[in-house]
Design a protein that fits this description.
The complex is a heterodimer of chains A (111) and B (110). Chain A is mainly β and 111 residues long. Chain A is built from no helices and eleven strands. In chain A, strands 2, 4, 5, 9, 10 and 11 form a six-stranded mixed beta sheet that branches. Chain A has a five-stranded antiparallel beta sheet with strand order 1-3-8-7-6, with no helix packed on it. The mean pLDDT of chain A is 91. With 110 residues, chain B is mainly β. Chain B is globular. Classes of the chains: A mainly beta (111), B mainly beta (110).
């Protein structure tokens, strides 16, 4: 089993829809959970960063971590065409180790 | 935007030739990373550096070497390029998951 699993999509939604993006992970030692957004032919950029379990909200974006089920989610409310990008989850163990990325989910928001 | 510049941005080369990609940062950050991104594989760590002359291997280091003689520069070298090294290469700086990426270098090995 890979350490981080992410459905690659693609996912296509109409403008204004609520989008749910998800990842599962295998190692319960992971403590830091990130979502990166990558526009076509650009480098990834950090979107959300959470530590341990719980929710974190930033505008239309909410990151959710459920450590008991090893499941992380990113919700996008009122999705916009400008949200069309690939979203990558990433997980870090903490003081040691490097960042482990999911394969990314390609999202398309249609006007 | 974090000051990260990758060069060249695009390169086409032939199998067996050496290739060096350069990453230059203006943030004076201690940690620097080289990733490759391929369809179906996502982002995979090649090598990273935690200081001048201090480097370590990542998940997919075979066929690659790195050097860091100055804080601001991190070089990735393919000693003898192969077609399997056709990819988009990203440099990043940061730590504990908060990484800032460059724009990428697209390498094609024919």
């Amino acid at each position: 089993q890979k350490e981080v699993e992410q459905d690659p999509g693609p996912l296509s939604v109409p403008e204004g829809a609520i989008v749910s993006l998800n990842c599962t992970y295998s190692n319960s030692a992971f403590q830091y959970f990130m979502w990166y957004r990558q526009y076509s032919r650009k480098g990834p950029e950090l979107l959300m960063y959470t530590y341990s379990s719980g929710n974190k909200e930033d505008g239309r974006f909410t990151a959710q971590v459920d450590k008991s089920s090893k499941y992380i989610s990113l919700f996008i409310r009122d999705s916009q065409p400008s949200d069309s990008a690939t979203y990558l989850c990433a997980i870090h163990q903490g003081s040691q180790g490097n960042l482990i990325f999911g394969k990314g989910t390609k999202l398309s928001v249609k006007p | 935007d974090a000051g990260i510049t990758q060069s060249p941005r695009h390169k086409v080369t032939e199998t067996g030739t050496p290739v060096t990609l350069r990453c230059h940062q203006t943030e004076n950050h201690r940690y620097m990373y080289w990733y490759r991104q391929d369809p179906g594989h996502g982002l995979r760590l090649i090598h990273y550096s935690y200081g001048v002359k201090d480097t370590d291997k990542g998940e997919v280091s075979d066929g690659y070497s790195v050097s860091r003689s100055k804080t601001e520069d991190f070089l990735l070298t393919l000693e003898s390029a192969t077609s399997s090294q056709t990819s988009v290469y990203f440099c990043a700086i940061g730590n504990t998951g908060e990484l800032f990426f460059g724009e990428g270098s697209r390498l094609t090995v024919l």
